[in-house]
């Protein structure tokens, strides 16, 4: 079948065949995340509006599953990054008010023992189900069992606005605009926050320095230096990190529009996706 062959070809060339991978595409706005996702998806170069809402491309053919999440990089969008990698259960996205009403209802019908929204700085909340405390992220993520069991109620309440799966992340692809040197510091800050987040401990990071087709874009060494990665990358090629507890991390320079560089990056990262 044409589609199969074509898709298989792309994944195989990226070393992702027969792998079920959840990959997050992160990085500042304008770094090239959406351009990359679409290039991987249909090898087409498309001009995109800045991403306002998280989108995901879930491609699944036969045994091959490949799920990429493209989260916007502008400042407000960065606040939801965490919802995509925090170790919460699978969930669905509902609004604050609706959640309040929904929880009250579920307690009344004794589906939940108790439920409360405990707002803190990140306005996260918890609900208690079968003695377990289930955290809900900043955008209020209720667990999937609600969706499964009570989707009709949710329909009734008109609260369902989409399901987000927040199981384990297999890899993070972090894009940096190598031409936009003024924003290296900002990009470093966001990267540092991700690297030091417990929920992402040991998750492989592929750092892509994009747009090297533009003259005067930073070199790989320059980018490593400005991102503070000079002594932290784990080596290109096949490096067995085995039980060393070291997070795979490497920088690859690329130009998405010229279709170069990122393939090597994906090949590199795929060896660390189990
Ligand atoms: N010169 C050059 N421009 C690129 C390259 N990749 C992406 N761009 C351009 O960079 C701009 C931003 O690309 P997007 O893919 O929309 O960036 P994004 O990271 O998704 O941005 P947000 O959605 O705002 O987070 C677009 O104008 C792209 O055409 C590249 O390799 N070289
Ligand atoms: Mg985008």
TrEMBL record:
For this protein, the record's SMART domains field holds:
SAR
> What PROSITE patterns does the database record attribute to this sequence?
ARF, SAR1
Write out the entry's keywords from A to Z: Endoplasmic reticulum, ER-Golgi transport, Golgi apparatus, GTP-binding, Magnesium, Metal-binding, Nucleotide-binding, Protein transport, Transport
List where in the cell it is found.
Answer: Endoplasmic reticulum; Golgi apparatus
GO biological-process terms attached to the record: intracellular protein transport; vesicle-mediated transport
A cellular component annotation (GO) from this entry: endoplasmic reticulum
SUPFAM superfamilies in alphabetical order: P-loop containing nucleoside triphosphate hydrolases
Query: Which superkingdom?
Result: Eukaryota
Gene Ontology molecular function, alphabetical: GTP binding; GTPase activity; metal ion binding
Binding residues for Mg(2+): 29
InterPro entries according to UniProt: P-loop_NTPase (IPR027417), Small_GTPase_ARF/SAR (IPR006689), Small_GTPase_SAR1 (IPR006687)
UniProt-annotated binding residues for GTP: 30, 32-35, 210-213, 256-257
What family does this belong to? Answer: Belongs to the small GTPase superfamily. SAR1 family.
PANTHER family from the xrefs?
A: RE74312P
The identity of this protein, by name, is GTP-binding protein SAR1A
Source organism: Gossypium anomalum
